[in-house]
Amino acid sequence: MPLVSDAVKGPPARRRYTSPARTEQAAATRRAVLRAARELFGERGFAATTVAAVAEAAGVAVDTVYAAVGRKPQLLREVLETALSGTDEVVPAAERDYVRRVRAAGTGREKIGIYAAAVAEIGVRMAPVHRALAEAARTDAGCAALRAEINARRAANMRLFAADLRATGELRADLTDDEVADVVWSMNSAEYRALLVDDRGWPADRYAAWLADAWVRLLLA
Description:
Elements: H1 20-44, H2 51-58, H3 62-68, H4 72-85, H5 97-104, H6 108-137, H7 141-166, H8 177-187, H9 190-199, H10 204-219
Helix pairs in contact: 1-2, 1-4, 1-6, 4-6, 5-6, 6-7, 6-10, 7-8
């Protein structure tokens, strides 16, 4: 005799089915939303960009923007993170291609050259988003917290970079890892880039070469 009669058994469990086409459609929608948000934040700034405007530019409904990414502060965060990774997805720093190449390089000069080139490349994508975030941080507490978080995370990553340089045995003996990290952190900032690239008109390749040369002269023995 069965322990549970057919009369009181619950309905059979439904099988979960994931459609590859539906998954790709969701990813395409997310990409369209982020692309629209990136363009509008860069053109109009954070305050003047509405979720409705992002939805219209992406060709979707407002509710779709919320479902695909989130509200406006989350949109800005995702735009920042994807600009950093250079992909449509958020990629942790340790898994980014240029970080892996920096760590695989054998000399301090090579590591610095790879990283300086990456900073210049990322800056092209990040500049308009950084401007939007800096503007928003003046009046929006959530955006101010996001900016502080990004800066703190960048500082922590620079300490890892300093330790990586230290392991080559090529760093100046009179510099601590914290000092190395602070120098690189200040010079890879959006504000420093804006002075040379935006205000003085330096092309990205000149900016990359300058960073590499300056860091080699300042940091290596």
